[in-house]
Amino acid sequence: MELYQLRGFAAVAESGHLTRAAERLHLSQPALSAQIKALEDELGVHLFERGPSGMALTAAGKRLLPEATKVLADAASLHGKARAMEGEVAGHVRVGTLSDPAFIRLADFLAQATARFPLVEIELRHEVSGAAFEKVRDAALEASFYYGDLAHPAVGTVPLREIAYRVAAPAAWRSKVLRAAWADISALPWLMAPPISTHRVLATRLFAERGSAPTTLIEADNEAVIRSLVASGLGIALVREDLAREGEATGELVILPETRLPTTLQFIYANDKREEPEMRALLEVIRDVWREARPSLNAANEPAARKRRA
Could you report the per-residue pLDDT of 118-157, keeping only the tens digit for each? Predict the structure, then answer.
């Protein structure tokens, strides 16, 4: 069964006359008659009663005509969608994500990317920030979210927002840590992310600036896990500022003063893929998502800013 046979069937049924249907389809009458005969043979039923006044549908023809019309409509729709896709961006990209999807606006990014570029397949890979940088640099990922300020000629960056880390301790340790010397702070149990992470780089820098090193290390690879372990009383740690303030507000954490370590949330990508259509599409989306996010982020930071000014 061919689509042209169904078109001939529908045209003859509509016109009720073989000659007029053939003219409409730009076919000879014998050619159209042969198509109808072939379709009837394929289906095993007679579709028309042939008479001197024209062609009339049989009972079987009347029942099958709506099905034929639907097939033709579906084929036209498929063809139209394929035509619409011509020239659209298509491809497969591997994108690294970090431990907090809400903080990096991952859902917004994916929603806009799939809506605007439906032929771009995005494969997500969960990464620690330092590993993400290395994988983008070494072409194991095309792009990734990333905490930090590292630079490399093979890696392009789109800065998204400034973030900061604070030294936070369990609330029960308040009297022990707020007036303690740094030597005493460093002697406490410390919770840290793996060495390849930006979190660990910042912590190492913090200790180096103070000429010391942590005495006891407990390693965890997830920021929410680190915050939870600090709140549970297992140690002290660098905690992302929004999580630290949240813990302070709920009475779970105490933040040490004068220990704010700023860094940057970035979207990084392989520079040699910058002009590829799928990468240009992702960069367009990430910029738009974070351009839309900035007013709400500023509003969210306003209470904290007022509190600091007070």
Answer: 889 999 999 888 889 999 998 899 999 999 887 888 899 9
Starting at the edge strand found earlier in the chain, the sheet holding 189-192 runs 120-126, 91-97, 143-147, 253-270, 155-170, 236-240, 189-192, 216-219
Distance of alpha carbon 139 from alpha carbon 256, whole angstroms: 40
Q: Are 289 and 206 in contact (CB under 8 A)?
A: no
Model pLDDT, residue 299: 42
Other Cβ atoms less than 10 A from the Cβ of 100: the count is 15
Q: Report DSSP state, residue 141.
A: -
Q: Assess contact for 193 and 226: CB atoms under 8 A.
A: yes
Q: Burial level of 119, CB count in 10 A (0-12/13-18/19+)? A: middle
Distance CA 168, CA 171 (A): 9
Say which DSSP state 210 is in. T
Q: CA–CA separation, 191 vs 206, rounded Å? A: 14
Span 251-266, pLDDT tens digits: 999 999 878 999 999 9
Q: Global pTM? A: 0.66
- CA-nearest of 258, 247, 261 to 171 is 247
Give the helix/strand (H/E) hosting 10.
Answer: helix 3-15
